[in-house]
Amino acid sequence: MAEIAGGLGLIRKAQPKDADAIWDFLNPRRATSMFLSGNLKDHGINTHGYTKANTVWLGMDKDRIAAVFGLTEYGYLVFEAPSFRTEWARQLCAQMSGRTIRGINGVWDQFVKVREALGLTQATGAFDVRQPHYHLHLRALIVPAGDSELRVTQSRDLSFLREWRFAANVEVMSVPDTDVSRTLGSRYAEELVQNGRGRVLFLDNVPVSMTAFNAVSGSCVQVGSVFTPHELRGKGFARRAVALHLEEARQDGINEAVLFAANDTAARAYEAIGFNKIGEYGIVDFLNPQVILDIKR
């Protein structure tokens, strides 16, 4: 176990030399920190130039890491803080003073404490939810039978993927129909083609559903972007798409998966392929970007 210099109850900015200790802390907690772990794996510590590049702070307990906070360049705060301390609140605000936050994601009990510490409990969220958090050991994966086949997203799929991604944002995250939101939906669809993490389910060469991994870290993946057009729902396409993608991942050495269920129908679909609920997860996208103030307590 790597050890690093710190102080009791200290919040400080991470340094490159902290990398081993950060992973020692995160690796046993991947199921509850996939946004953070995936971002760090893809972009590293305190990097710039990408929407998911992170500035990272550490919560210290003497010479051990007790929490990791990552704020992406776009403005999403993700973290793993299983024992958030009240004395960290002022220090966290001081460290993040002047930074802009567009949203916060985290395990529910941690999410509540971090949001309160930053003084954002009253900030209105366009999307502000508490969702069931699911986990699956892929040895227990159940793949539904069917004739549909899963394919890697291709540039030629963008004609419908852009619309699907926008429709999913509107339905699941209450995103308004604006030029900005449509641009973001298009950008995300393009990223799925570029990074190779998106999949489309086809039946008789007709696209019927989509899924993706929105984070990959070690032997664990986080499933996201699951969407089936309204007229095609109730036929089991989403669960088969997710299961086929996970079966593919299992063949590549992945052995765990996590995801969140947006509604009861989604939860039943995920449970049908083997997922088990392990807790709850908080997600908020603020109506307006929030600037962190260096509050005095």
Question: Topology, pairings included?
Answer:
Layout: E1 11-13, H1 19-26, H2 34-43, E2 54-61, E3 64-72, E4 76-80, H3 88-96, E5 100-107, H4 108-117, E6 125-137, E7 149-152, H5 158-173, H6 179-195, E8 198-203, E9 206-217, E10 220-227, H7 237-251, E11 256-260, H8 264-272, E12 276-291
Parallel strand pairs: 4-5, 10-11
Antiparallel strand pairs: 1-2, 2-3, 3-4, 5-12, 6-11, 6-12, 7-8, 8-9, 9-10
Helix pairs in contact: 5-6
Major sheet: arrangement of strands: 1-2-3-4-5-12-6-11-10-9-8-7
- Count structural domains: 2
CATH class of the largest domain: Alpha Beta
Shape descriptor? globular
CATH architecture grouping of the largest domain: 3-Layer(aba) Sandwich
CATH overall fold name of the largest domain: Aminopeptidase
What can you tell me about this protein's structure?
This protein is α+β, with helices and mostly antiparallel strands and 297 residues long. It folds into 2 domains: 11-131 and 282-291, Aminopeptidase (3-Layer(aba) Sandwich); 142-273, Gcn5-related N-acetyltransferase (GNAT) (Aminopeptidase). 32% of the residues lie in helices and 33% in strands. It has 8 helices and 12 strands. The chain has helices spanning 19-26, 34-43, 88-96, 108-117, 158-173, 179-195, 237-251, 264-272, and strands spanning 11-13, 54-61, 64-72, 76-80, 100-107, 125-137, 149-152, 198-203, 206-217, 220-227, 256-260, 276-291. A hairpin with a 3-residue loop joins strand 3 and strand 4. The radius of gyration is 19 Å and the shape is globular. It starts with 10 loop residues before the first strand and ends in a 6-residue tail after the last strand. Residues 1-7 have low confidence and may be disordered.
